[in-house]
TrEMBL record:
Its cofactor is pyridoxal 5'-phosphate. The keyword Transferase applies. Signal peptide: none annotated. SUPFAM superfamilies: PLP-dependent transferases. InterPro entries: Aromatic_deC (IPR010977), PyrdxlP-dep_de-COase (IPR002129), PyrdxlP-dep_Trfase (IPR015424), PyrdxlP-dep_Trfase_major (IPR015421), PyrdxlP-dep_Trfase_small (IPR015422). It comes from Actinomarinicola tropica. This is Aspartate aminotransferase family protein.
C-alpha cells in the first residue's frame, strides 16, 4: 500500500469509525450471532490475488459488525466497561503508524521516557503515594492487562522471598472474591493449588481480616512462608473493597509482598472525594489499575506501580548478547522489557498521554464523578421500589440488585432486558443468590440512558411488552 493509498483508505476508515461511534447507540447492544455464523460468512481459503481495500471494508460492515457486541454503546451496562474515546483511538493509530517496538530504551527512547513520565503524571492524577514515582526506588509501567500485572507481582514477590528454589514453602493469600487472574498467576508461576490460600469474605464481600490472620498464623507455625497477599479494591462481582491498610499491617511484618488489584476502581482516584480507594497504599508493594476499563483508554492498557522496582527487574531480567547496548550497560535507563513477561512491547503510553491531555484532570474528574452520581441515582431508585432489592450500597459505579420475587424472577428480568437489545446487563451470585449488575461507566452514557434502563427493568418486571431494538 503506497502512502497515498494509506491516506485515502485511512481517511475513509477514520470516517467509518467516527460514523460507527456516532451511531453505536442504535445497534442492539449484544451481538445476535450464533456460534459459527461469522466463520460461515467468510471464504474457506485466503485470497490468491490481492483484493481492493473497499471489498475488505464492505465485509467489515456485512460480516464483522453483526458479530460485534457494542461495548462502546451508551446502553452497555454489563461486566465492567471498556470505555474508549477519540483521543485514545487516535493514540492507538499513531502507535501503529510509528510501529515502534519499545523493548529497550535504546530501541526508541521516547517510547520508554513518555511511559515513565505519563505514569508519574498518573501518580498526581490519582493521588497515589510518592513511593510509586520513578525518581525513587519505585515506578510505574504499562502492562497489557491487570492479569499480567498480578503475574509479574507474584514473580517479583517470589524472587524477593528467595526465588524458585525456595518456592516449595511459600504461601499466598487472596479472598474468595479476588479475580481469577490471581489463581492463574499462581498456576503460571508453578505453584501448587494449595499454595494460594482462599480467604473468606464478610457480608460486604470484602476479605475477612480475622480469617486472614488465622491462615497466616497457621502457616507461620507450620514453617511456611507467607510471601504474597493480594487485596482487591473493587472486586469483579460486586465492587467490594478489601481492607488494604489492615491487610498490609497484618502481613508486612512477615515480609509478605502486598499487591493491590484496583483494576476497575483505581480510576476513581481522579475524583478527590473518592480517594478513599487509595487508603493504605503507602504500605503496599504493588498496585495496578486498568485505564482500559474506566479511564477512556481503549484496550489494552494497565498501569502497574511498584514501590521498589529492583525485585521486579531482578526477577525478570535476562540479557542476551544481541540486546546489549551502552545505555543499558551503564544503568542510565529503564528497559521496560525487564518489567513484564514478553520481550516486545507496544507504544501504549501514547494513547494514555493523548487521553490525559485531551480531558485534563478536570475533564476526567467530571466524567468519573458523573458515572458515580448516575450509579447512585439508579441505586436510590432501586432501593425504594418494592419490585427490587439493592444488594450492596453503590459506593462507586456498580449497582448490584435483584428482584424481590426471587432468583428466577431476577434471571427472567435480566434476560428480557438483554434480549430486547436496548441495554446489556450481566450478573453474579452473592451467597448463592442471583444478582443483576448494572455497571455505569461508558464514555457516552448519560442520565437518559440510565433512565431508559430503569424503564426497561420496570417493564420487564411488570411483564409489559418491550419493543426490541433491531
Ligand atoms: N481484576 C479485577 C478486579 C477485575 O475486575 C478484572 C476484570 O474485570 C481483572 C482483574 C482482569 O482484568 P484484565 O482483563 O485487565 O486482565
Amino acid at each position: 500500500m503506497t502512502p497515498d493509498d494509506l491516506r485515502r483508505h485511512g481517511h475513509r476508515l477514520v470516517d467509518w469509525v467516527a460514523d460507527y461511534l456516532e451511531g453505536v447507540g442504535d445497534y442492539p447492544v449484544a451481538s445476535r450471532s450464533a456460534p459459527g455464523d461469522v466463520r460461515a460468512a467468510l471464504p474457506p481459503h485466503p485470497p490468491t490475488s490481492p483484493e481492493p481495500f473497499d471489498a475488505v471494508l464492505d465485509d467489515v460492515a456485512s460480516v464483522v459488525l453483526p458479530g460485534i457486541t457494542h461495548w462502546q454503546s451508551p446502553d452497555f451496562f454489563a461486566y465492567f466497561p471498556a470505555n474508549a474515546s477519540g483521543p485514545s483511538i487516535l493514540g492507538e493509530l499513531l502507535s501503529a503508524g510509528l510501529g515502534v517496538q519499545g523493548m529497550l530504551w535504546a530501541t526508541s527512547p521516547a517510547c520508554t521516557e513518555l511511559e515513565t513520565h505519563v505514569l508519574d503524571w498518573v501518580v498526581d492524577l490519582l493521588g497515589l503515594p510518592d513511593r510509586f514515582r520513578s525518581d525513587g526506588p519505585g515506578g510505574g509501567v504499562i502492562e497489557d492487562s491487570a492479569s499480567s500485572a498480578t503475574l509479574v507481582a507474584v514473580l517479583a514477590a517470589r524472587h524477593r522471598a528467595g526465588g524458585a528454589a525456595a518456592m516449595g514453602e511459600m504461601v499466598g493469600y487472596a479472598s474468595a472474591e479476588a479475580h481469577s487472574s490471581v489463581r492463574k498467576a499462581f498456576t503460571v508461576a508453578g505453584f501448587r493449588d494449595d499454595q494460594l490460600r482462599v480467604v473468606d469474605v464478610d457480608e460486604h464481600q470484602a476479605l475477612r481480616l480475622d480469617h486472614l490472620r488465622t491462615l497466616v498464623e497457621e502457616d507461620v507455625a507450620a514453617g511456611r512462608r507467607p510471601f504474597f497477599a493480594c487485596a482487591t479494591v473493587g472486586t469483579t462481582g460486586t465492587m467490594a473493597v478489601d481492607p488494604v491498610r489492615a491487610v498490609a499491617e497484618l502481613v508486612v511484618p512477615h515480609g509478605t509482598w502486598v499487591h493491590v488489584d484496583a483494576a476497575m476502581a483505581g480510576a476513581a482516584g481522579v475524583v478527590p472525594e473518592l480517594r478513599w480507594v487509595n487508603d493504605g497504599l503507602e504500605l503496599v508493594d504493588s498496585w495496578c489499575f486498568d485505564p482500559h476499563k474506566w479511564l477512556f483508554t481503549n484496550f489494552d492498557c494497565d498501569c502497574l506501580y511498584v514501590a521498589d522496582r529492583s525485585a521486579l527487574v531482578e526477577a525478570l531480567s535476562i540479557v542476551p548478547e544481541y540486546l546489549r547496548n551502552a545505555a543499558s550497560d551503564a544503568g542510565d535507563v529503564i528497559d521496560y522489557r525487564d518489567w513484564q513477561v514478553p520481550l516486545g512491547r507496544r507504544f501504549r503510553a501514547l494513547k494514555l498521554w493523548f487521553v490525559i491531555r485531551h480531558y485534563g484532570a478536570e475533564g476526567l474528574r467530571h466524567h468519573i464523578g458523573r458515572h458515580v452520581e448516575l450509579a447512585q441515582g439508579f441505586a436510590a431508585r432501586v432501593e425504594v421500589d418494592p419490585r427490587f432489592e439493592l444488594v450492596r450500597p453503590a459506593e462507586l459505579s456498580l449497582v448490584c440488585f435483584r428482584a424481590a420475587a426471587g432468583d428466577d424472577e431476577s434471571e427472567r428480568i435480566m434476560h428480557a432486558v438483554n434480549a430486547s437489545g436496548r441495554a446489556l446487563l450481566s450478573h453474579t451470585r452473592v451467597d448463592e443468590r442471583f444478582v443483576i449488575r448494572a455497571s455505569i461507566g461508558q464514555t457516552t452514557t448519560e442520565q437518559r440512558h440510565v433512565d431508559a434502563l430503569w424503564e426497561l427493568l420496570g417493564a420487564a418486571a411488570d411483564g409489559r411488552p418491550i419493543e426490541p431494538r433491531l
